[in-house]
Each structure stands twice: as C-alpha cells, then as structure tokens.
Amino acid sequence: MADFHGKNLVVTGANGLIGAAICDYLRQRGAKVLGLDKAAGPGCQALDLADAAAIARFGAGIDGAVHGLVNNAAISDPHNSPLADLSLATWQQVLAVNLTAPLLLTQALLPHFAEGASVVNIGSSRALMSEPNSECYAASKGGLVALSHALAISLGAKVRVNCVSPGWIAPDQAELSLADHGQHPVGRVGRGSDIASLVAWLLSEEAGFVTGQHWLADGGMSRKMIYS
Predict the structure, then answer these.
(1) Over the stretch 186-215, which tens digit does the pLDDT of each residue have?
(2) What is the DSSP letter of 16?
(3) Which pLDDT score, from 0 to 100, does residue 186 have?
C-alpha cells in the first residue's frame, strides 16, 4: 500500500463522486490534499476552472512543493443538445473546463512540482465510445487522453503523466438493477474507490516506471459484445 505521508497533492473536482473518493483515499494514506472545486468546503478551495487568470493566480500562490496533481474536474453531463442545436458557447465552455483547464493547471504548477511528481488526468470511457448528442464531452475527454501522453513526453523524467478513464461509476446508495451490474464482465457497476485506488497507485513511487499511459477502468464493459 502506497504511503503518502509528507506528500502535497492537488485534486480538482474534489466535491464530486470520484473527486471526493480520491481525496478521502489519499488522506487516509497520509497525504496533505488540497481540493479544488466550484464551491469551497472542508479541505476544498473554490476555483473557477473556466477562468484562465484564476488558475494562474492559484499557481502563483502555491507555497512549497507539489508532489501530485489530479485533474478530475469536468462538466460531467455527457449529453449536449441535439447536434443541430449545439451552440458554440456550450462547446467552448465544456472544452474550457474539461480540456483547457488541465493544461493550464499543469502549466501553473510547473515551478512547484517536486522531482518525480505525478499528474493523473481523469478521462472517460466516452473518449472511446459514444451515445448520440455527446460531442462536447466525448471530444473533451478524447483530447484529454491525447494531452496526457503529450505532456508525459514534454515533462520527461521530472513529472510523470497518465490518464485514467472511468466507465460507469455510481454512488453507494444508487438503486441499480441486476441488468445494470450484468453489463459489466466483473459483475458490478463501479465505485468511486475503484478509481481512487488506481489514481493513488499512479501517483505513488510504485508506478515510477509508468508514464504516458491511458488506463481504462470500466469493469470490462467496453470490451463486452452485446447482441439484442
């Protein structure tokens, strides 16, 4: 089990299902976690990730080394309006938060990253498969997968960068059917802790030889052929 005592980590989207699970998992293992989200809360600072100037100010205000960054925040509704009605403003807003913000936040923290730091970007299985009217979300997450391996090459040995793409992740109290679980070869819908444990490993020194990779954590759902 990775030990994060003495490590300073930044996690965006910290109030959401996956973000909260990541923060809790890391704190339980000794990390000092600064959460970022639209609204402030316990252990969470407010930051508008659509505001490039705000991201730059946040980076300039960091004091001390940063050992890891998790770019998890996203405008997470995968469905936009029908394609004929999709506005440029909606497209730009989704890409600003889901794709541009991870780049800007990584840039803002460059002066503060410790040697051997790790960035984990949270993508989505929708980077690889789609439903109708999901252009904004799918494009933003597909771009994040590509951005991750590009950053890994640019940052080289100092900062590792990987991407984790969750599939269907549900809260513990969600009412799910046997059919919902049965769509997954592992026999169940995913939990926040499934993503948190993988993210923690990628942040840790145990994954020191892993960079530029895309990790699909969907219980095998995208590999299962379904005939109706």
Answers:
(1) 778 789 899 999 999 999 999 999 999 999
(2) S
(3) 79
CB 109 within 8 A of CB 103: no
CB 169 within 8 A of CB 191: yes
CA angle, 183 then 22 then 220, to 5°? 20
Q: Let me know if domain 8-223 sits in CATH 3.40.50.720.
A: yes
25 is annotated as an active-site residue: no
Is 0.90 topped by the overall pTM? yes
d(CA 115, CA 121): 19
Domain range summary for the chain, segments of one domain joined by +: 8-223
Q: Is 169:194 a contact under the CB 8 Å cutoff?
A: yes
Give Cα 55 distance to the centre of its chain: 17
Contact 142, 169 (CB under 8 A): no
Q: How far is CA 32 from the centre of its chain?
A: 18
**Left, alpha or beta for 44 (phi > 0: left; psi -120 to 50: alpha)?**
beta
Question: Out of 137, 144, 204, 218, which one is annotated catalytic?
Answer: 137
Amino acid sitting at position 110: L
Rounded alpha-carbon distances, angstroms, from residue 96 to 65, 91, 115, 126, 135 = 26, 9, 28, 18, 14
Q: At which residue do the structure tokens 């494009």 appear? A: 139
Report residue 184 CA to chain centroid gap: 21
Among 203, 227, 224, 226, CA closest to 215: 203
